[in-house]
Amino acid sequence: MKKQIAILGSTGSIGTQALQVIEEQSDQYEAYVLTANNRVEELIAQARKFKPEAVVIANETKYAQLKEALADRDIDMKFKVSRTTREIQGVKFEYDGFSFSGSKVSREFTIEELSKHGIGYVATEGPFFGYLIIPYYYKGTLRYYNARNVIGQGPRYNNPNKDITGLGKEFIIFNQDALDMYSSIFICEGAINALTMGDRAIATMGKAISAYQVNQLIKSPVNRFILLLDPDAIKYSINLAFKLVAYKKVKVIQLPEGKDCNDLQRPAVMKLVYQTRYQSYSDLVKLKNSL
Q1: For 102-112, what is the mean pLDDT?
Q2: What is the pLDDT of residue 102?
Q3: Which band of pLDDT confidence, cut at 50, 70 and 90, is reported for residue 197?
Q4: What is the pTM of this model?
């Protein structure tokens, strides 16, 4: 049975690359829902090519054009966007955040932000039902994906095996391109936290940082690293800082117990960042001994 994928922002650069992957692996995947903000002509062309079950255009003024162009196709267009709420196959998006089928999940992302990163939601029964699919790109190539459970039954994460991607997660960094673009970088544990912190944030996909990941950080042109691992990973964060401090400026941020970056949201995290100075090797020793 093919995995059915909903692509938010299918006309954007990441969305079109995701569709290319679906086309190349059509025996495994099919486009289930396609959405776009304004590019109605491109969305129409995609709908005719990939024949999804439903399409969504965020710009209500273009809905009539979309409906007319696809009138001869068996494509559901009942998900016309309202001004306050957007619903796709039971997934309700709101301008001030999102929730799923009445669940209490709220991660404070708008549909535009999700679309920007090519994030899709699997809305039909199967091993990935109820998961957000977060693609990991590096230099324009899809290298990995993160499946994050939001309402489905199963583990919190359902990530691909090495035999599928050719790479284990120890060789992956979320938003790795940022290492070549910015002089100051936030290091987070998971992709959702990195998305919360913005374009200058990367994620290591876990508490324990691999030798490959450390090497990528050290050899990058980044001057300053701000470590924002989850509170239960503070010892891992300090150990990583020890490995970086001889080469880069480092700052270990101690988040409140039980709260990650997404729980706190960016303004509260940035307040902690501004309150914490960059640390020397001796500062890190003192911090480690204080725990």
Answers
A1: 47
A2: 33
A3: very high
A4: 0.65
